[in-house]
Write a structure and sequence with these properties.
Helix content: 25-40%
Radius of gyration: 19 Å
Strand order of the largest sheet: 5-4-3-6-7-8
Order of helices and strands: HHEEEHEHEHEHHEEHHEHE
Distance between the termini: 48 Å
Strand content: 15-25%
Number of domains: 1
CATH superfamily: Glycogen Phosphorylase B
Length: about 260
């Protein structure tokens, strides 16, 4: 018998995290972590049916989200006969098609590439999906930043399918608030999508409700930065020098300051 598969949540717990907090603490800088914030939290208009509805909304970039892996994994499930749909907002349809080695997205029944959409329309699209899908290479940039797409999905009440980079494991509780993918490769993501397909409507509904349950470092509605600073200072142990370095996770980090 082969070794048992490694639980992605256990793998995430074993790593040194959070990355930026450890980076500054090793340099003797007091650190207080402010949870990810969003300007609005409102459940989307979710209407479940017999189709697994997935969504990607954002700009993949050259070193950020691996949209190509998402497309290939969904294509594999569609080829297996699964009832699945992927809505992509942000990249131009021609760029989405190129990731599949095609000239255009026309004639692909499971794929709907919308291009750029107004922010309100993006929120509606995310809110109607069963899951947002987000995979990233496990590298320095992914671990030093925090994906705003993740926050926006939870703000709409939509669970997330993702591999666990950065501090995502604090929020993505496998089987509760989403599904954790073992890696960012096509095989791992396809396996996780099959898990999503096997979920009944009640299980998906429970995941949508779970994002309201408070957890450590949970995503919150945005508070004024002055309040965030005061609360952060309250977290510093007595006797530690003041002016902690705040690790704000409501934006993507590219380079360490």
């Amino acid at each position: 018998m082969g070794d048992a598969p490694v639980d992605p949540q256990d793998r995430w717990r074993d790593r040194d995290q959070p990355y930026l907090a450890d980076y500054y603490r090793r340099r003797g800088v007091p650190v207080a972590i402010v949870p990810p914030t969003t300007s609005a939290i409102a459940a989307g208009d979710w209407q479940p049916d017999g189709v697994l509805r997935l969504c990607y909304a954002g700009s993949p970039g050259s070193h950020k989200d691996d949209l190509g892996t998402v497309l290939q994994a969904v294509a594999r499930l569609a080829d297996e006969g699964a009832a699945v749909r992927l809505d992509v907002a942000g990249p131009e349809p021609v760029h989405v098609a190129a990731l599949l080695g095609l000239d255009a997205c026309t004639g692909i029944p499971w794929l709907h590439a919308h291009g750029m959409l107004p922010q309100a329309a993006v929120g509606q699209l995310v809110g109607k999906a069963d899951f947002t899908v987000l995979v990233r290479e496990d590298r320095r940039q992914s671990n030093a930043g925090f994906p705003t797409k993740f926050v926006e999905s939870f703000a709409a009440g939509t669970p997330v399918i993702a591999n666990l980079t950065s501090d995502l494991g604090e929020h993505l509780r496998d089987g509760e608030t989403g599904l954790a993918c073992a890696s960012n490769d096509v095989d791992s993501l396809a396996a996780t999508l099959r898990r999503a397909l096997a979920l009944d409507v009640d299980a998906r509904r429970r995941m949508r409700a779970a994002w309201r349950t408070p957890v450590p470092h949970s995503i919150r509605a945005r508070i004024p930065r002055r309040c965030a600073t005061l609360r952060a200072r309250e977290l510093i142990s007595p006797g530690v020098m003041t002016r902690p370095r705040l690790i704000m996770y409501d934006s993507e980090s590219r380079d360490l300051p």
